[in-house]
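Risk register update: the risk that structure generation would not scale has been downgraded. Supporting records follow, first protein first.
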Amino acid sequence: MTDARFDALRSTRAERPAAVLEAAGARRRRPFLDESRRLLLVAADHPARAALSVRADPLAMADRYGLLDRLLVALSRPGVDGVLATADIVEDLLILGALEDKVVVGSMNRGGLQGASFELDDRFTAYDAETIEAMGLDGGKMLCRIALGDPGSLATLESCGKAVTELARRRRVAMIEPFMSVSTDGRTTNQLTAEAVIASVAVAAGLGAVSAYTWLKLPVVDQMDRVMAATTLPTVLLGGDPTERPDETYAAWERALCLPGVHGLVVGRALLYPPDGDVAAAVDIAASLVRPTTERAPTAP
């Protein structure tokens, strides 16, 4: 992402806004799943929910130049199938020509801003099903946090149900990211036990009038075999917050990727902002886990 390329992006945005629609209309598309039936997407919808921090840096993702640079590196690596993002980032990548032959999932509800008093009010403030179809995107992703002590969760469930139905009518994937959540002293926490994730799966799978195009995006927790036994819906694993111990994260992903019904990973900060700063290396490791090689060195006689 050179300075000249970034300047050209800014100029196009200001002088030729129609270039976004032109690029979307001309984009080469591919099937959501290829012949491997595996999927690796890079997630970049965090900024729209004011979730900008990575480890000790509270504004790591606020630098759009740096974020786009990291996305371009990630999308250029073998085995990366596409991106999950809000319209502003998708459109930047369209103008930059980085989404040819890629899966593109539009993020739909970003209203529950991190740390806000209304954080659990996950309103649909980004993509809608109509625009996802018009822009030639492959699906829409929605966050579905369920807090039994917060009446606002009912509105989130209703909105997600409508979005699932509208996407299915257009034969677009509805990717639901469900959590059982609690809010204590103004801080929202997702419950990451097997029992909580199983409960969230049961609720999410029943949303909408049609589930034929519904996918689940689930956290990796202990006893993932029990979680995956709770649904027949195709599932991808979310990467979670990046830590200083990526080897442990990779090992957990590898175990979960072997389970029936798991088709791949959707990872954001853990790949875009690895502790050593090497985006390409982090992405390559994830790609090797999603599509492990079956070739082995010959054993000695």
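Supporting record for the second protein:
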Amino acid sequence: MLKLLNVLPTLLLAAIVVAPTPVRAQLSTGSDIEGVIDVHWHAGPATFQSIDRSLDALDAVRIAQRYGMRAIVIKQHYLETASWAYLISRMVPGIQIFGGVALNRSVGGLNPVAVENVATFPGGFGRVVYFPTFESEHYNPGSPVAVPISKNGELLPEVYEILDIIAQYDLSMSTGHSSPEESLMLIRAAKEAGVQRIYVQHPLISRIDMSVEDQREAARLGALLEYVLGEAIGSDEEFEHWADMIRQVGPENVIISSDLGQRGRMIPSDGFRTVLPRLKEAGFTQAEIDMMTKRNPARFLGLEPW
């Protein structure tokens, strides 16, 4: 027994020396995504209301950092994520992490106090305000769970109060899961309030289905259009439609984000590594791809150009 105790420190040291260290080579092979910014990365833990997530936020950031991604925004439908971004930034250096708040019922719906709390979180980790998502009235017409933003074709007073806070603190704004008509109303009102950075959240998904004409009008008003990888990783026909819509709207007006992280689907980093080569094969230049995955997302988040 005494002999074992004497050699135990040596055995422990040997185990530490030979223990494998996680390296980039352990990740799946694919396209380089160094410098890419994902403004829509879903990560857990999830609440009882939310869709289950494949990665918790810490693992998500570690993977993004190991691929050399520049920044990610942790998206949650029912919890603010500025505090998550702050804590994880202390554990994972070399990548910028941001959070925000989606104005669903769990934070009080159209709650200016929730927005101001995220806006004033130390360090600027609270960056994006999403108008109602899964609980938008557009998604839940006539439902008691709905969080409306308009009535009789007019935005509600609380919307204007929130837009003033977004402008005051220079936050970024997403239109959430609003109807195309509401999204255009939001963009016009946000610009009048002084909001500088806006995107229309996944205008192509079937439950929003924003026309090319409305997307172009949103871009003319000063908003970006978010095209998500979740709409491009299906069949060849789905990818071709997605890519063709980007051409019609113009890469200069588009942000490509993942909107991935749901359990059972491709993780966001692999989504980028799968789809970006296909864009190049479809005739998009590297400059256009960089614009949609690096420059425009940086502009949306108020970061310096890459």
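The first strand starts at residue 37 and ends at 42. On this basis the risk owner (M.S.) recommends closing the item.
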